[in-house]
């Protein structure tokens, strides 16, 4: 009889076939058996989930700004990965910007790996950056294992990560086409925003008018046409404007290779209820109106939006300018990696969705888009990454108790469903102070 390292017995396990009662056998950090729950699998350690618990695949968050090195006071690998683990996430992909140096060449990638070494409580992979003039670095970064390349179509907010013009985007896409690498894109149009009213002051409504839906719509239309022309593989990050759903749907039906993510904040909050001066809600593109939120939920249900990832992008408290509450001055970015799962589950269950849907959006979907071949699913051959969730237990978000470095989040004070009881990485329960995360390389993980 096979002796497993670990067997997890779960009356409710989220598998690709749906929710099932399963016994899951783990050897060498991989899932090697998924059997009916009554199967007698023998193991060194047998764990049985509680009557109020559900076993999910460890979540995959492909949009996290860790900011280390360079802006480590904003966030760092230790705190970001502890927060991820506390939120049921077992894999993060780190964005190439806000750290210094930005990950725009192999040397910078190595600097980042050196900074992260020994600090990670979850598995970590890296996106490269596509910036003007680094075309000849893309192939080397690809070969070094980045999962794709991030670019901006308007100023990114940090000077060391300049944006691509329309012609530079086309040129970069042509280069990436040679090795079929993925380009992930922040799509807002700078000219549209220049012509929009200024965001200064405390009124959320003024900030929203300064980043109109039109800015996203124009840039997404450009991106679709560039992807079509160059037969490129592109991924749209943090979709907020629901106006763009129709053109994304039609582009996809025509075979344009574009995938789409949105974020928990666009699916949770509504502009109408954001208080003036509440700059913890500032992000770009912005959180829009309630009708926009409901249209994003429809797009997620119908599959035009592929996945939900956090876009965890914290900064030091002073830069949020809560002292003056000015949306023009505040840094844009929402800290939420630890809250993403309960935030989405709270909204999803109220709309009749199941945890099977949530796992598809937050584990399987992002893993598929990033090309993580052993992550995001409870299935034989995959890494034994699990999240044990008590879906009906509620809690109130206390920003100070969250694990990320700076205790600011727009979810503070919210009552949410879904308490993460434990998180397992390659067959081991994640414990604070025992960082056992590994670096992930495209194609190998
Ligand atoms: Zn981001």
Task: Give a written overview of the molecule.
This protein has 445 residues and is α/β, with parallel strands linked by helices. The protein starts with a strand and ends in a 16-residue tail after the last strand. It is built from twelve helices and 17 strands. A hairpin with a 2-residue loop joins strand 2 (18-27) and strand 3. The structure holds zinc ion (ZN). Zinc ion binds next to loops. The site of zinc ion (ZN) has 5 residues, from loops.
Which descriptors would you attach to this protein?
four-stranded mixed sheet; six-stranded parallel sheet; 12 helices; binds zinc ion; alpha/beta; 445 residues; 17 strands; single chain
Outline the secondary-structure elements.
Layout: E1 3-15, E2 18-27, E3 30-36, E4 42-48, E5 54-57, E6 59-64, H1 77-86, E7 89-94, H2 106-116, E8 123-126, E9 128-129, H3 135-143, E10 149-152, H4 166-177, E11 182-186, H5 190-195, H6 204-210, H7 213-229, E12 233-236, H8 245-253, E13 258-262, H9 264-268, H10 290-302, E14 307-308, H11 340-350, H12 355-370, E15 386-396, E16 415-425, E17 428-429
Parallel strand pairs: 1-4, 6-7, 7-8, 9-10, 10-11, 11-12, 12-13, 13-14
Antiparallel strand pairs: 1-2, 2-3, 5-15, 15-16, 16-17
The structure holds zinc ion.
Zinc ion is lined by residues 63, 65, 95, 311, 313.
């Amino acid at each position: 009889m096979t002796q497993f390292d670990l067997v997890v017995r779960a009356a409710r396990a989220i598998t690709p076939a749906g929710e099932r009662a399963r016994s899951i056998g783990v050897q060498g950090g991989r899932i090697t058996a998924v059997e009916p729950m009554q199967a007698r699998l023998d193991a060194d350690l047998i764990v049985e989930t509680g009557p109020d618990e559900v076993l999910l695949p460890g979540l995959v968050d492909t949009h996290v700004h860790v900011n280390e090195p360079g802006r480590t006071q904003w966030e760092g690998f230790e705190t970001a990965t502890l927060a991820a683990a506390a939120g049921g996430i077992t894999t993060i992909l780190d964005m190439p910007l806000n750290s210094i140096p930005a990950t725009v060449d192999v040397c910078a990638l190595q600097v980042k790996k050196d900074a992260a070494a020994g600090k990670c409580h979850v598995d970590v992979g890296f996106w490269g950056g596509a910036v003007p003039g680094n075309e000849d670095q893309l192939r080397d970064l690809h070969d070094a294992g980045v999962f794709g390349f991030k670019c901006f179509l308007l100023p990114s907010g940090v000077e060391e990560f300049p944006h691509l013009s329309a012609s530079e985007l086309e040129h970069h896409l042509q280069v990436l086409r040679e090795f079929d690498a993925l380009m992930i894109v922040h799509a807002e149009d700078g000219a549209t925003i220049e012509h929009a009213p200024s965001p200064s002051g405390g009124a959320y409504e003024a900030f929203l008018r300064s980043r109109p839906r039109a800015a996203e719509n124009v840039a997404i239309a450009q991106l679709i046409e560039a992807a079509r022309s160059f037969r490129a593989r592109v991924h749209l990050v943090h979709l907020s404007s629901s106006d763009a759903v129709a053109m994304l749907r039609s582009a996809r039906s025509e075979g344009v290779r574009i995938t789409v993510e949105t974020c928990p904040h666009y699916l949770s909050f509504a502009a109408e209820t954001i208080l003036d001066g509440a700059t913890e809600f500032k992000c770009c593109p912005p959180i829009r109106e309630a009708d926009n939120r409901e249209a994003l939920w429809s797009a997620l249900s119908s599959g035009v939006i592929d996945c939900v990832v956090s876009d965890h992008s914290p900064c030091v408290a002073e830069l949020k300018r809560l002292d003056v509450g000015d949306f023009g001055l505040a840094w844009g970015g929402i800290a939420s990696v630890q809250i993403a799962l309960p935030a989405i589950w709270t909204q999803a269950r109220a709309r009749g969705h199941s945890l099977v849907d949530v796992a598809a959006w937050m584990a399987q979907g992002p893993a598929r888009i990033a090309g993580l071949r052993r992550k995001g699913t409870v299935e034989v051959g995959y890494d034994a990454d699990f999240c044990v969730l008590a879906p009906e237990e509620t809690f109130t978000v206390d920003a100070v108790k969250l694990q990320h470095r700076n205790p600011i989040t727009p979810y503070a004070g919210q009552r949410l469903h879904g308490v993460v009881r434990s998180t397992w990485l390659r067959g081991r329960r994640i414990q604070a102070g025992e960082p056992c995360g590994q670096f992930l390389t495209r194609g190998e993980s």
